């Protein structure tokens, strides 16, 4: 049997896909196609040390520190790709996290390990929480729109001329609110 593995060079498409996985797929369909090891505790959840070609899976069914109910299944591939299925939403894939080792590009121009400022001529940056978002500049047909992919960098502060050397460490592709 051939098992489903991430495509580490797939394009990152906002609100749609990354690593060869489409947002919205169901966990029940995913689990039938993969080789996996289930973990009972987040403390033990480290698929990087597991057998190659195996997904690490954990079901989080808990109350968070701010009293939010979490009912999701996290599936990790060698600490490079993480898929999160929201079990309150019929088990739909709602988030795809991408980390070191992922080679695909956002908009075919920006990847993990690249400098964030490498696209400052084409995009402005928005910053929320501890993540950056690309915003189309004036003159673009998409002026003012935000590219719906969260970008993590090695700094937890907003890009500025004072902190221009930020390196991209992660991407988060997520389902847009109107798709939920």
Structural notes for this entry:
The protein is an all-beta fold and 180 residues long. Helix content is 3%, strand content 37%. It is built from one helix and eleven strands; from the N terminus they run ββαβββββββββ. The chain has one helix at 27-31; strands spanning 17-18, 21-22, 36-39, 55-63, 69-77, 81-86, 92-98, 123-128, 131-136, 146-153, 168-174. The strands form two sheets. A nine-stranded mixed sheet has the order 3-4-5-6-7-11-10-9-8, with no helix packed on it. The chain has a two-stranded antiparallel ribbon with strand order 1-2. A hairpin with a 2-residue loop joins strand 8 and strand 9. The radius of gyration is 17 Å and the shape is globular. 26% of the residues are buried.
Decide which structural class fits the backbone.
mainly beta
Query: Could you list the spans in which at least 5 consecutive residues all have pLDDT below 50?
Result: none
The strands making up the biggest β-sheet line up spatially as 3-4-5-6-7-11-10-9-8
Q: How would you sum up the major sheet?
A: 9 strands, mixed
Strand percent estimate: 35-45%
Please write the string of helix (H) and strand (E) elements: EEHEEEEEEEEE
Number of helices: 1
Please report the total strand number as a whole number.
11
Quote the average pLDDT: 91
Helix content: under 10%
Shape: globular
Radius of gyration from the CA trace? Answer: 17 Å
Amino-to-carboxy terminus distance: 33 Å
């Amino acid at each position: 049997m051939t098992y489903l593995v991430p495509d580490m060079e797939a394009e990152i498409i906002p609100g749609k896909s990354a690593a060869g996985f489409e947002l919205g797929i169901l966990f029940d369909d995913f689990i039938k196609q993969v080789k996996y090891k289930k973990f009972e505790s987040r403390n033990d959840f480290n698929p990087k040390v597991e057998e190659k070609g195996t997904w690490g899976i954990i079901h989080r069914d808990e109350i968070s520190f701010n009293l939010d109910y979490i009912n999701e299944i996290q599936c990790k591939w060698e600490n490079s790709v993480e898929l999160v299925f929201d079990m309150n939403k019929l088990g739909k894939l709602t988030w795809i996290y991408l980390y070191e080792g992922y080679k695909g590009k956002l908009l075919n121009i920006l990847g993990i390990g690249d400098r964030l400022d490498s696209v400052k001529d084409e995009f402005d940056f928005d910053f929320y929480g501890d993540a950056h978002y690309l915003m189309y500049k004036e003159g673009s047909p998409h002026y003012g729109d935000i590219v719906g992919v969260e970008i993590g960098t090695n700094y937890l502060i907003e890009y500025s001329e004072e902190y221009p050397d930020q390196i991209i460490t992660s991407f988060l592709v997520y389902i847009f609110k109107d798709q939920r």
